[in-house]
Specification:
The structure is a homodimer. By secondary structure, chain A is an all-alpha fold. Chain A has 2 domains: 47-91, Arc Repressor Mutant, subunit A (Orthogonal Bundle), CATH 1.10.10; 93-236, Tetracycline Repressor, domain 2 (Orthogonal Bundle), CATH 1.10.357.10. Helix content of chain A is 58%, strand content 0%. Chain A is built from 10 helices and no strands. The radius of gyration of chain A is 23 Å and the shape is globular. The N and C termini of chain A lie far apart (64 Å). The interface between A and B is large, with 59 and 60 residues. Chain A binds a DNA duplex through helix 2 and helix 3.
Chain lengths: 246, 246
DNA sequence: TCCCTATCTTTACATCGTAAAGATCGAATA
DNA sequence: TATTCGATCTTTACGATGTAAAGATAGGGA
């Protein structure tokens, strides 16, 4: 009996920031008395805001250990709770990833909106959004991966659905402004759809290839010191020399 | 003792095609005599070509159960061997996925080359490659996922490196032909790099968004019955109405 | 005061990847 | 021909993970 799952912690001590009471239970088995009574503001009994704490813990784990390290149990360890605690708040791993992706989409949307606001010239305005797009992905590759590369997302969750929808709406709106036409919410012409798909595919594809390191071959063949941002800009502004946009 | 891992099979009977001798060992424990001596062409002792058989089994599992179902043990079950057999041939899961991705890249390259050959007019030629690109991904979404969305690939493996390199070379070559200029193997101008990045990003991004179902919103707002292929074509040929290719 | 409910912990189990040791067979060697 | 050797495959084992189910623990009304 009790052959598996008796160690629980014994690691995760790397880069510990501030939170997480840290119960120091590395003895061996059976810790019946969690704490006598609620005093001294330590080990917050029922915690009060575990859900938020878990999401923040998940973000830390993601940034520290990457996508592969983002497990339910790792998040629980980071938050200092039992490994089954996240399940109660998110149902399963898909639930946690979906809520985390929603957080990511909100950050993502805010970053792009902010970048658009600070632009002045028309060209700057047009480039601000894709630049912010790629910049966010480079700054938060794990989060971008959760948002765009995970098959384990549940878009029926309202928070995720809304946040992702807002992202798409921002894109469609930007395209509409650039084409100087109103893009309605329900029907699209083929050319409008093509324009949206082109912009999104272009920036999303660039980002994915960049994060996957597949643009390295190109970047290192370009003039010395050409950055990814410069390549992005060139890709978006260089003259098209054939009938197709290539 | 013998608490874990004594069941081995008992499933995976869905959609069994033809291969795999099927040893019918669903009794319980200890099957010492695998078979008396090599006779009757059944249960091929050392199998002879397990490596190839495992790769084919992996492809079947991938198509049947998707990326999530593609595990070392599932592949071993599909091939009718012990769960540790794949390790001997591929080292670890990364090894298997990398070799499988190499198979995919070869199929992928062949599909595009074939499509380009059968094109006649210049416009057809220009569109043949991206269309074949997307068509392959739609026909083999699991394989495309392995090739382009997996972080667990080892590009230091020669077979994978070569197959992926060939894919990139084909793209660069096609862009060069379209721009009517020679694209050298080592150095690139910024505009050349931008053109390659644009073409690749455009098609790769479109494919990823399509496979992830993120283009559904657009497709269902387009005129009745517009297919993804039609949208792709429009995206590649519709006139650009602003300074940027959007 | 007592019970009810949400919250969190324990315990348990199937599955997975991987390591290590044992079995098996083809082939080279004597 | 008999024996040894090395490659191939199987067994066994272990830690980790997701998830289900039952037990503990308060906080908040009745």
């Amino acid at each position: 009996m009790a052959k598996t799952d008796t160690k629980t912690d014994t690691k995760g001590e790397t880069a510990r920031t501030s939170r997480a009471p840290r119960r120091t239970t590395s003895t061996v088995a059976s810790r019946p008395a969690r704490r006598a009574t609620g005093a001294k503001t330590e080990t917050p009994y029922h915690h009060g805001a575990l859900r938020e704490a878990l999401l923040q813990a998940a973000e830390r784990v993601l940034e520290r250990d990457g996508l592969a390290g983002l497990t339910l149990r790792a998040v629980a360890r980071e938050a200092g709770v039992s490994h089954a605690a996240p399940t109660h708040h998110f149902g399963d791993l898909t639930g946690l990833l979906s809520e985390l992706a929603a957080v990511g989409f909100r950050q993502f949307n805010a970053a792009m909106a902010s970048a658009c606001d600070t632009a002045t010239t028309p060209l700057e305005r047009a480039l601000a959004r894709p630049k912010a797009y790629v910049a966010y992905a480079q700054a938060h590759p794990g989060m971008y991966g959760i948002m765009f590369r995970t098959e384990r997302l549940d878009y029926s969750r309202p928070s995720l659905h809304e946040a992702a929808e807002a992202s798409f709406a921002g894109l469609a709106n930007a395209i509409g402004m650039m084409r100087q036409e109103q893009i309605s919410g329900d029907a699209l012409t083929l050319n409008q759809g093509a324009a949206i798909a082109r912009a999104w595919s272009l920036v999303h594809g660039f980002t994915m290839l960049l994060l996957d390191g597949r643009l390295e071959d190109i970047l290192e063949r370009l003039p010395e010191g050409t950055t990814a941002e410069r390549l992005l800009e060139a890709m978006l502004t260089a003259p098209v020399t054939s009938k197709l946009p290539v």
